[in-house]
Input
Amino acid sequence: MSNVYDNILGLIGNTPLVKLNHVTREIPAMVYAKLESCNPGHSTKDRIALHIIEKAEEKGILTPESVIVETTSGNTGFSVAMVSIVKGYKCILAVSDKTKAEKIAYLKALGAQVYVCPANVPADDPRSYYEVAKRIASETPNSVYINQYFNELNIDAHYQTTGPEIWEQTEGKVTHVFACTGTGGTLSGSAKFLREKNPDIKIIGVDADGSILKGYHETGEINPLDIKPYQIEGMGKNLIPSALLFDQIDQFVKVNDEMSAYRTREIALKEAIMGGYTCGAVTQGLIQYAQAHPFGPDEVVVLIFPDHGSRYITKVYSDEWMAQQGFVNNCVHNYDEVFKTEYIK
Output
């Protein structure tokens, strides 16, 4: 029998590259999106959830009575919950209140116990989802805290899988890799592998306007003035994760909520790819980078599209949400009428 698996976890990895033909038409390079939404949990976080949990099993850290605890903006939680179901562990997740209701419902459908924490508090605040997860882990018997932000296995998962896949899929011709940075594991692990193959490959991190990562990369210091609220989930940070290898990254590009939202919807509209908010953000990062760094026709660019748009239907794909943010009225691409729905009365 072919294409048959013992369980859903066998589908993790080996995600496709898809050429972008319209959104990046003004960029002469070959631009490909690596569609991590093709993982069974619909995001790149499937890779780290499986890798970290299986390494813990190998070391005897996990037992049949174990409870897995994690901090998540949504995607890691889906992946951890999925792996926990298959392997028979209980799962407790701490999420920020930026997480939309449908994501929380999804997590609960996968059997996770969910704690919703305020997003706009310092990382060391006892109410932050980082501190809540730590507290739960310390108070829960037989618990194991994944701690993706400070777990080197986050990097290793992508060193072992994502990086080699990009190298093989492009036949070693990749010249640039762009990815949004949250924990940093996706870009760091991929970059580490690819630069061992070719140290000239450019690695570009995409950061959120409101995050400290770009400033820290450039100065080595945290600037509290960089911190401000923003809407994009799963990228940017108000702390420095050890899973983000700054020495592997050539440059950061900062993108804002509005342009990332337009770009997300443009990708769906022009490429028929329903990507998450960060897919629009990483594409916007490429477009901004290209304004100062012109590409040539022989260059091969890979954008890591981390998740699926189905998790953002009431956010970036919602006309009402876009209008609430004031985005539709300011749409520089004149898609206002396309994005609006006509009601017959």
The CA atoms of residues 70 and 146 lie 5 Å apart. The beta strands are 17-19, 30-35, 67-72, 90-96, 113-117, 143-145, 176-180, 202-208, 251-255, 300-305.
